[in-house]
Amino acid sequence: MEGMLIDGNTIKLLRIPFSFFLMPLFLFAYSQAENILHHQALWSFLIIHLLVYPASNGYNSFVDRDEGSIGGLEKPPMPTIQLFYLTVFMDAAATLLALIFVNALFAFCLVLYIGASRAYSSRLIRLKRYPIAGFLTVAFFQGAFTYYMSVAGVSGNGLPLSRENIYVLLGCSFQIAGAYPLTQVYQHEQDLKDGITTLSYKLGYLGTFLFTGLMFLLCNVFYYLYFTAKGIGMIFYIIQVFFIPIVLYFGYWFYQVWKDRKQANFSNTMRMNWIASICMNGCFLVLIIINRIPLSYISAIETAVPDHCYTQEALSEFYIRSTDDLINKRKIRIVAGKTGIEKRYSVLSDFDQTPANYQFFNQSADLLPEPNLTQRMRVYQEHATKLSIKAIEKIRDFHQIKHSISHLITVTCTGLSAPGLDVELMRELHLKPTIQRSSINFMGCNAAIIALKNADAICKSQPNARVLVVCTELCTIHFQKQYNDDYLLSNLLFGDGSVAVLVDSKPSRNYIHEVEINTFNSMILHNGYSDMAWRLSETGFIMNLSSYVPDLIRKSIKPMLAAVGLEPDDYKHWAVHPGGKRIVDDFAAALELDKCFLAPTYNVLKNYGNMSSPTVLFVLKDVIEKAKPENQGNRIFAAAFGPGLSIETMQLSYV
């Protein structure tokens, strides 16, 4: 019975606490893995640090039979055959547990790592006696290979050898390449007695320090390339803060060895190990926390308009022909000339035709009787899905990524049916039947920002979420043969359009800068309750859009921003919904903005008119696509206005 018990010296030679020094690369891999399978990650950590590393240490001690200090033990005891059998058992247990509780790729990597470790120490192969071969073996297997193996264990997948991942693998190997010779600097005499000529011995005491400094410099270069390639260069600078104590002690120790070679001893080496491992483990734990804080990013914005494009003049002439009242004709011309619109798009082909060729309206100059609600909804159902798909399919590689979409949010206020636009899109695009869907209906021009608010909340609560937001409006099918002020504005402002937005919980690198969604703010102006409204009737949707809306927005927008602590000067880029030219003019005046900041808004108004909910995202697309390298860190302010009267704002930033 006593022979079966493992003695204390055998346990001591496993040097289990030494695994703390080897922990940073696992934590780094955990912080960077795209997907985390938490139970596999836990098993991977335990297998590597409590079985594989200690078994490697034990086998090395059994073969070397060190009499002097070794890493983690200043006075190691003599090993027995029990240590050898224990290391074999631990390696076998590690491989079996990896196959059962992790995955085959991780288990295969473990076998390769164990094989390399044995080849390094074994008397038959003894790679450690060759200064270059031993160095390269350790740098590769404890560096790049360990990172790859850790990612396989944590995520269940191999690491794709993309440009940025090659950078990080090189960075990991150079990190180990710097640390490895430094751990040998006090063992020169002991190694020589055992017939081993280490790289550190070849370099000499001072050469070892200079070589280590060079390796860590190269490590930093590749980490910089990695994080900047991923568009998160700020993380590199966070790492540098944690590296400061390491650099300071390294410089101090180098100075001591420069003056007295005896300072290249076990105590100082272990002190260096502890400082480096504490700082790097702390650093990568912080990266885990940072990378696991859910965020949301706009990965793509794509737009679409119908095939029928009309000049504002052609649309106003259609309107004019519908009445014989000269006063109404004159009012239409005056209002049309003040809209700031040059062209609009429609799913209807009638607006530049003679009455005999009308397809939607009654084939008479006075348009009577007007299409009823059923007819208008029939046109909506015929065209809304097609126009939405036209926008969606512009998203880069959409058909390759569509099965990763976890949520679908549709937005519309110009047509309603059940099953609605969301189900139609799922069916036509063959989206996952398990996709989570929701619809934002009848909320008007600012509904897109409300939809993005929902997408943002989803991404910040589900780390792997990918949300497709689709806003589609066919405003022109609600043209009404009326001539009061409300309809003069609505008939001469609105056009048709669709926009598809992909919101991700992780950066996509589709733009020159990542576009991170920050915060949202809302305000209802009850004194504008009846100035913007949208109601159903037997003949179609009835629009209330009074000329008082710009005044209400002008008087309210600055107090709204002040109430939530936002300063206009903090924003370099503006995506404001072009509800009408006066609204945009008064918005700029209220915030004392140079109108050049609102150029994207004026351009969308000029070329598309007001398309209701998609319009602000047409503007945001223009803003994002014109970003420049020097815009990193700049903030974007988006605002839209809807029934109620409601104001919705969104703040974003280039990161």
From TrEMBL:
Keyword Magnesium among UniProt keywords: no
One Pfam family from the record: Chal_sti_synt_N
Membrane topology: Multi-pass membrane protein
Chalcone/stilbene synthase C-terminal domain residues: 523-652
InterPro entries from the UniProt entry: Chalcone/stilbene_synt_C, Chalcone/stilbene_synt_N, Polyketide_synthase_type-III, Thiolase-like, UbiA_prenyltransferase
SUPFAM superfamilies named in the record: Thiolase-like
The UniProt record lists the keyword Transmembrane helix: yes
Family of this protein: Belongs to the thiolase-like superfamily. Chalcone/stilbene synthases family.
Protein name per UniProt: Naringenin-chalcone synthase/4-hydroxybenzoate polyprenyltransferase
Phylogenetic classification of the source organism: Bacteria, Pseudomonadati, Bacteroidota, Cytophagia, Cytophagales
